[in-house]
Write a structure and sequence with these properties.
Elements (H helix, E strand, L loop, with lengths): L25 H9 L6 E5 L5 E13 L3 E5 L2 E5 L5 E2 L16 E8 L6 E5 L3 H4 E3 L8 H13 L4
Antiparallel strand pairs: 1-2, 1-8, 2-6, 3-4, 4-5, 6-7
């Protein structure tokens, strides 16, 4: 297995698209993003359009189906039932109840100040890319590798 030659620090802007795993299909891109492990570096697309290095801090079910409205610098979001939620923060498992619509989400640390960004699963394909260090397998390659291991009796 090749050792990664990519040298990126938290918050660095991608130097070239070749440093990212880019997949044309949204379904494959979501599968690729789902392969990112906790504390692993990846690229996320920022609101300014730049791809920057972030670290996956957590992955969990979080409130979904929220409509956001922006007033000044504050964001107010409401669930489909009209209940107000703070979508800019990560909810603990104790704060989540059966009345909430939930969606798998990822929480990323995006800079050395500890700023975070939450990305819901329906947006993973558009806003998350794995680092392409030469050893990364696409989701299709990973599943074919698994099939070969299973066929050979290696798990």
């Amino acid at each position: 297995r090749q050792k990664s030659t990519l040298k990126y620090a938290l918050g660095d802007v991608a130097r070239t698209p070749r440093d990212m795993v880019i997949l044309r299909s949204n379904k494959e891109a979501i599968q690729s993003a789902s392969m990112i492990k906790k504390f692993q570096q990846c690229f996320i697309k920022r609101s300014n359009g730049l791809w920057t290095v972030a670290i996956l801090a957590d992955r969990a079910m979080q409130p979904a189906n929220q409509v956001q409205t922006r007033h000044d610098d504050s964001i107010h979001s409401f669930s489909s039932t009209g209940q107000q939620h703070d979508s800019s923060r990560w909810h603990t498992s104790d704060e989540i109840d059966d009345s909430m619509d939930l969606e798998q989400s990822m929480l990323f640390v995006i800079n050395s100040d500890g700023a975070t960004k939450i990305i819901q699963k329906r947006h993973w394909g558009k806003y998350i890319r794995r680092l392409n260090d030469g050893s990364a397998l696409s989701p299709g390659q990973e599943s074919r590798k698994k099939e070969v291991r299973e066929k050979d009796g290696k798990f």
